[in-house]
Design goal:
By secondary structure, the chain is α/β, with parallel strands linked by helices. The protein has 2 domains: about 110 residues, Rossmann fold, CATH 3.40.50; about 100 residues, 3-Layer(aba) Sandwich (Rossmann fold), CATH 3.40.50.1860. The chain contains 8 helices and 8 strands. The strands form 2 sheets. The chain has a 4-stranded parallel β-sheet with strand order 2-1-3-4, with helices on both faces. The mean pLDDT is about 95.
């Protein structure tokens, strides 16, 4: 029986999961693992604080432990990668975080990358992650758009704010590649890339791409 790559949205916002499902559609390949995007309905509307991240880590872990027998792998679809270290310690299948995967992908596309964050208070968490990965020298900068995950549903306002942030990262910080710093931004990749003229990494696509490539190899 074919096993499933689970893309776990640890917040309770189904619209975010629907956007992820659409974003990974091109990666549903014949002969590859099935890709199922799931919402952890017990989570908050958005992962927006360290407390949210810490609580989400346990929820992600518990979901993975309950589903690992039928899993080909797990993708943690939150830009703080909650529970990723837990999964790599406990799960018997490959596990990927969208923050880590997004940054690693960006560094294959340019020397420097910039991150569009949702909130200013998200940036210190991201900086800790880049420091732990040892890639701080490749980060051009981060700019927040000042919107919660729920507020991303205002498409016109969100895209305008993201374009402004992307231009600042390109023109003021010298970013050569942009990374969208929230899973809830998934549907904005193409219009943002068209507006800015730089490669834009949607991090869940990046993580699923890695998973789809690695799982058949048994890595």
């Amino acid at each position: 029986m074919s096993k499933t790559l689970y893309v776990i949205n640890p917040n309770s916002n189904q619209a975010v999961t629907d956007g992820l499902d659409a974003a990974v559609e091109p990666l549903r390949l014949a002969g590859g693992p099935g890709i199922t995007c799931v919402t952890l309905t017990e989570g908050p509307p958005g992962i927006e604080s360290q407390l949210d991240v810490d609580r989400a880590a346990i929820a992600v872990h518990d979901f993975a432990m309950a589903h690992q027998d039928g899993a080909a792998g797990f993708v943690v679809a939150c830009f703080s990668d909650p529970g990723l270290a837990l999964l790599r310690e406990r799960a018997r299948v490959p596990s990927f975080g969208i923050s880590e995967s997004g940054a690693l992908t960006a560094m294959t596309l340019g020397q420097t990358f910039g991150v569009i964050a949702i909130l200013a208070r998200s940036i210190p968490r991201h900086l800790r992650n880049w420091g732990a990965m040892g890639i701080g020298a490749r980060l051009a900068g981060e700019v927040a758009i000042g919107r919660t995950v729920s507020e991303l549903s205002d498409r016109q306002g969100t895209l305008s704010a993201m374009v402004d942030a992307g231009r600042r990262l390109r023109d003021e910080h010298g970013a050569q590649v942009l990374v969208m710093g929230c899973a809830g931004m998934a549907s904005f990749r193409a219009p943002l890339q068209d507006a800015i003229g730089l490669a834009v990494v949607e991090p869940t696509q990046a993580a699923v791409s890695m998973a789809v490539g690695r799982i058949p190899l048994g890595w």
